[in-house]
Write a structure and sequence with these properties.
Helices cover about 35% and strands about 25% of the residues. It is an alpha+beta fold. Strand 10 and strand 11 form a beta hairpin. The longest helix has 30 residues. The chain starts with a helix and ends with a strand.
């Protein structure tokens, strides 16, 4: 009886393992975020770059979140798995595990928990992460194109009401910032400052940033990929329910058209920058 139970457990384990391996092999890319939720800043303790390195070590084609995507991935985000590293609470141990999700936010694979008693943060996180990655040794990842995954394209143009409202709020904020700039310039003119002072204000506030490179768009599913003259993919624009407003994939940024000009507005390092773009659609 005991032998039968043990045999059954082994068989079920092999079936589960084969299923996980097959599922992992369906995906061509792994995307690593710039920041993990349990850390305070991008690539803190070099953990994100170490994650990218370890995925490469085990045979994956890896992209960071802000990287320009290859053409096939830009047109079908479902070719990639999004990775995440999660911290499991512990008073005396640092515990980490790796999670891979597909384009529908379904968990495809979760590693074993890697742990260490090391007290120094940077070393502890590195040791725990390397330990968790040992789960990938047995998988022997090898990409095998899956027709169902290749044919599947997540509809990124279906935004929730909350996302639409967020877009509208961002545009409203940008317009308010422009209005504030105009008021500042007007008040300075009333005080009749020196010519060089007016020139300085115009340079800082109202003069658009000129772009020496013309960018071109190529239509893809749910948006456009923007390329330079090389051609190299510069960014991916995802369509939104709002006219002439696009989300930049992998960046906290939007591209929009106003007064006949295209602009990119990006939130970075707790500040917002807006630049003009010369894009040919």
């Amino acid at each position: 009886m005991k032998k039968t139970v043990v045999t059954l457990i082994l068989v079920l384990g092999l079936v589960f393992f084969a299923k996980a391996q097959s599922s992992i092999n369906d995906y061509k890319y792994v995307i690593v975020p710039n920041k993990f939720d349990f850390l305070k800043s991008n690539n803190q303790y070099q953990l994100n770059s170490l994650t990218k390195f370890l995925f490469k070590k085990y045979g994956f084609t890896v992209l960071m979140e802000e990287d320009a995507y290859p053409v096939d991935l830009a047109s079908n985000y479902c070719l990639a798995l999004k990775s995440n590293v999660l911290e499991s609470g512990g008073m005396f141990k640092t515990k980490l595990k790796i999670e891979l999700r597909n384009c529908n936010n379904e968990i495809v694979f979760t590693s074993d928990i890697g742990e260490t008693r090391e007290k120094e943060f940077k070393k502890a996180y590195a040791l725990a992460l390397r330990s968790a990655f040992k789960s990938f040794e047995a998988l022997s990842y090898n990409y095998q194109p899956n027709k169902n995954v290749i044919a599947k394209s997540k509809k990124t143009n279906k935004f929730s009401t909350q996302e639409i409202e967020k877009l509208k709020e961002e545009i409203k904020t940008l317009k308010n910032e422009k209005s504030s700039t105009a008021i500042v310039v007007t008040s300075i003119k009333k005080e009749k400052p020196k010519t060089d002072e007016i020139s300085e204000v115009k340079t800082q506030e109202s003069q658009p940033i000129k772009s020496s490179n013309v960018l071109y768009t190529q239509e893809i599913d749910n948006g456009f990929q923007v390329v330079d003259s090389t051609p190299k993919i510069v960014m991916i624009l995802l369509v939104t329910p709002l006219q002439n407003i696009f989300i930049v994939r992998g960046r906290d940024a939007i591209v929009y058209k106003e007064d006949g000009f295209w602009f990119i507005s990006e939130n970075k390092d707790n500040s917002t920058t807006t630049k003009t773009l010369e894009i040919k659609f």
